[in-house]
Amino acid sequence: MHDWKSIAVATAGLTLLWPAMPAGAASSTAPIPAALVPPASANALSPAALVVGTCKVTSVPGILNFGTIDPSATANVIATTAFSMKCTKGTVSTASVDNGGLNFSASRRMKHSFAGTAFLPYSIIYSGDSGFTGQGFGAAAAAQLVKVTGTITPAQFQNALATTASQQYADTLTITVNP
Hints:
By secondary structure, this protein is mainly beta.
């Protein structure tokens, strides 16, 4: 037979070794000290990404072809071409041909392909080149059409050097689309 008095004392001594339980706690085990509990974020996954606001030319312009010019004419010679661009959704664009061309010298000018010192000045203007708010690059996203119009005035072409079938006046411009 057990001596209940010694069991009660032993149990009381054992109980003193455990930390006190909070009032109303139903657990029969001691709580784990806070330092041993892993932080809540130790098992969390936090994806992150940045999307760049950019605009790109999506269809390149054709040749700004002024055709055959009659130097005795009195009207401006006008040519047009266009290109398309798309931008990241919500990004506002600007586009221009801002480098002046390969033959720039105070104005844009085309260079004669045979006589390296003969030039034909021209000017260009744009429409739809700024203020477009991008809709994204997906197939269904709207593109912005930028129209480029070039003009050569009679004062610029009336004294131009003639070209033969294998010769022409030409220039190359770089399109800049921002951002």
